[in-house]
Design a protein that fits this description.
The complex is a heterodimer. By secondary structure, chain A is mainly alpha-helical. Chain A is built from twelve helices and no strands. Helix content of chain B is 30%, strand content 22%. Chain B is built from seven helices and 13 strands. In chain B, a hairpin with a 6-residue loop joins β4 and β5. Chain B is globular, with a radius of gyration of 23 Å. The chains are: A mainly alpha, B alpha+beta.
């Protein structure tokens, strides 16, 4: 690994994250590869959860923490992004009140890009816009652990396994937290038709 | 409609940043590269220090004059009343659980779970085998919790246009007959199949939360509930908090500050001050923000909407 130069690593797409992190134990600068590869996505995640103002600062902290903890990185994992999401999520958790306030006060502009084509996604978008207040309130009302799992999956498109790796929890826990969060969200979606009885829902469903 | 797509559509506008916007963070990282390794923290010692500091802060946020008692051995104050240790409280909780008879539910039945968060009461009727349609009542709102049959489940929601739609699923049984009873196997189960290592604060913290989630999300036979408490009684390092929220007795789990990225809440299981019967779970974040879930009632019923007799 000593032979790896910064140029070789930065220039080469075929060097995976584990190799760059291992190399950075000898030559710190190699960790820049990790930053350049993942920082934009971690920044966007932080901005989605806490806003752009805080995102920049927390992005720097995320990578400082990652760099200092790189010795404990599992070199069996070729992709460091779930690990970075975990560190960033931990930093978000220190701003929980800010996040909850942000959600409750609806200081959030919904993304304008729509995933192409799918009718279900267009319907979802209409619902998200029309029920934005109750939905963001529901997100604010989730337990922080449940919210972390829900947003890593729904916003960041992580798989269950990646969320488990990011948060250092078993996949079964990811599943149960996601289920609980979704149940609470569905409660709000169900609110759109309060007159409907359970039996009617069953009959129509 | 898939509720995950709705949440996805709720994603705030945030374009990928430009290289310019990333410059400051990149600069701070490069400054760190130049810092000699001696300045890097040593996670183990740092984690331990913060553990004690954090436990004090968290407890102080909950009660004015909490006395933290090491869970290790029986102890009494010199002149005051008898002071409990965590193992005793948990053993009593097991005894309290055993006073209810074991009644194995049928697959077509439902577990009724009533909880209160301190703000609102939730009632859930969850399918024992996960294939029947359950119900969740959150305040005045009633929501279908669709069962999963042949790998598909109805998409719940009040949006009329979405009715008839289904989505892929895996059944989520509310009752696991394979829940083990031996302490070692139970702790492995609560660690999701991994060998439980009590020297890791993050694992301890997760097991504490897993116990709370097990009781608020599923049906556990009284004898197995007792086994869970007996397994927990063997975990070293748990602390008694005599005046937990609501006048309960708390058993506090070690705070994790060094390992798991998300485990930095203090977690307490709550027990009745008289019988030490299980009451619920409370977590306290670093800034004192608190979330509790009190288990008010659990029972087996035949259909959603029914209430258990006791």
């Amino acid at each position: 690994m000593n032979q790896l130069s910064v140029q070789a690593v930065v220039g080469g797409d075929h060097v995976d994250d584990a190799a760059a992190i291992e190399g950075s134990l000898v030559q710190s600068e190699l960790f820049a590869v990790i930053f350049d590869r993942h920082a934009p996505y971690i920044h966007r995640y932080l901005a989605r959860r806490l806003g752009r103002e805080i995102a920049e600062d927390l992005l720097a902290e995320t990578f400082l923490v990652a760099f200092r903890r790189r010795r404990s990185y599992d070199l069996g994992r070729g992709d460091a992004r779930p690990w970075l999401y975990g560190i960033a999520t931990n930093l978000v958790s220190q701003h929980r009140r800010d996040e909850v306030r942000r959600l409750r006060l609806r200081r959030v502009d919904l993304a304008t890009e729509v995933s192409p084509g799918h009718a279900d996604r267009i319907a979802a978008r209409v619902t998200a816009q029309s029920m934005r207040g109750p939905l963001t309130a529901a997100l604010a009302g989730l337990s922080p652990d449940d919210r972390d799992v829900l947003l890593l999956i729904a916003w960041e498109q992580l798989t269950y396994e990646e969320v488990a790796a990011a948060l250092g929890i078993p996949v079964g826990t990811v599943r149960s937290r996601l289920n609980r969060a979704r149940r609470k969200v569905r409660t709000v979606l169900g609110d759109g038709n309060p007159a409907m009885t359970f039996q009617e829902v069953l009959d129509n469903g | 409609m898939d509720d995950l797509h709705v949440i996805e559509a709720l994603r705030p506008e945030a374009p990928l940043p430009t290289a310019l916007e990333l410059g400051a963070a990149r600069g701070r990282l490069f400054a760190e590269f130049a810092t000699p390794p001696a300045a890097e923290n040593t996670p183990r010692s740092r984690g331990r220090l913060l553990w004690f500091a954090g436990a004090g802060v968290a407890a102080a946020a909950v009660v004015a004059a909490a006395v933290l008692v090491p869970g290790g051995g029986p102890s009494t104050t010199p002149s005051g009343p008898k002071v409990l240790n965590a193992a005793q409280v948990l053993t009593d909780a097991a005894a309290a659980a055993r006073t209810s008879p074991d009644v194995v539910p049928r697959p077509d039945q439902f577990v009724y779970i009533k909880t209160n968060s301190g703000h609102e009461t939730d009632q859930m009727w969850l399918s024992i085998d996960g294939t029947h349609d359950g119900l969740i009542v959150n305040g005045a709102t009633r929501t279908l919790n669709p069962g999963c049959r042949d790998g598909r489940q109805a998409v719940a929601g009040g949006d009329n246009t979405a009715h008839g739609a289904t989505q892929p699923c895996q059944p989520q049984p509310a009752y696991d007959p394979s829940l083990p009873t031996s302490p070692d196997a139970l702790l492995r189960y609560l660690s999701n199949g991994r060998t439980f290592d009590p020297s890791q604060p993050s694992e301890l913290n997760q097991v504490g939360k897993a116990i709370g989630e097990l009781f608020t999300d599923s049906y556990v036979l009284p004898s197995k509930r007792a086994a869970v408490f007996e397994a927990a009684a063997k975990i070293p390092g748990l602390q008694v908090v005599p005046n937990a929220p609501g006048g309960a007795i708390g058993v506090a789990w070690p705070l994790d500050k060094g390992g798991s990225p998300t485990g930095n809440d203090s977690t307490e299981l709550l027990f009745r001050s008289t019988t030490h019967a299980y009451l619920g779970i409370t977590t306290v974040g670093e800034k004192g923000e608190q979330g509790s879930e009190y288990l008010l009632q659990v029972g087996i019923v035949d259909k959603p909407g029914d209430l258990p007799s006791s």
